[in-house]
Amino acid sequence: MAVQKELFSSRIMSWYTSNKRDLPWRNTNDPFKIWLSEIILQQTRVDQGMPYYYKFIEAFPTIKDLASAPQEQVLKLWQGLGYYSRARNLHIAAQFIATELDGEFPITYKDLLALKGVGDYTASAVGSICYNLPTAVVDGNVYRVLSRLFGIATPINTTEGIKEFKKLAQHLLFKKDTGTYNQAVMEFGARFCTPANPDCDHCIFNDSCVAYKTERVSELPVKLKKTKVRKRYFNYIVLLDSELQTKLHQRTEKGIWQQLYQFPLVETNKIVTSVELMKDDCFKKIESEYKLEELILFNEVPVIHKLSHQHLITHFWIVSVKSTIENGIKISALPDYAVPVLIENFISKFPPFK
Fold first, then answer.
1. Which terms under GO biological process does the entry name (predicted)?
2. pLDDT digit string, tens, across residues 267-276
């Protein structure tokens, strides 16, 4: 195993030196910027996350700038990235660092792990890259590389698998330069040992990769099937008055899109007709609050918005209002509000909102 360790680290570091991407967070030692990049890149591809990284750095050059910003501004900048709890936790952690730590970023694994929204992966990544802490990173790319190279079939999304791969990654860690090493393994998984159709014939490890030798590359890593996807039926009620005002509500309850804004929502247990919608108790509450006139279905074909464990089957209903909407929101002001991408896409297509 000692020989394998030395061979693995030397080859992976050599490959990284020649193949690494020039990414902005790799050209800085600022832990704030590196931490920000790691949070953005959770559940997000590099090409998708890059514009958001630049937007955040421009809006918040320092962690104190982020901490002092209103949460709604943070959520607005995050709009479209999904998994909005990342943005809320980012903001909370920034406030903690700014107020409780006097703006000084934590320098130990334990203290990094104590930050809101920071788990083993992020603490290991930031700690190794910024401070050369001896903590191995294990993300999807690392799971893939190690499971194939060593032929490990333990499911990666089980407690047993998490422990096994972390132990192996920690054993292989090149402690003289942990930050570069961790980035090298992740980069190799992202760029070469890809989920589908990796170029195994030209791989630097094809002389020792168990999966390649046993023709199990496509089978590894093993991941247990997810829980059944839940279907939900959303009906957004888009109110419009004569002054081109509408109404938004903020989602304050826990769950998806907490603190984001949306049109009044009627959730049903199936796709409904206008007659069925008007009989719904939630719709009746909206009707009792406003003097509603015409009800028009905007999209006959439902928009299906897919989240990790649920699919939102969505219709938008345009409803004209007789009287002026009290505390209504001007159409022109809608871009100032942080909304789910599902609603942002609707706004971009609906003529009065353009």
1. base-excision repair; mismatch repair
2. 999 999 999 9
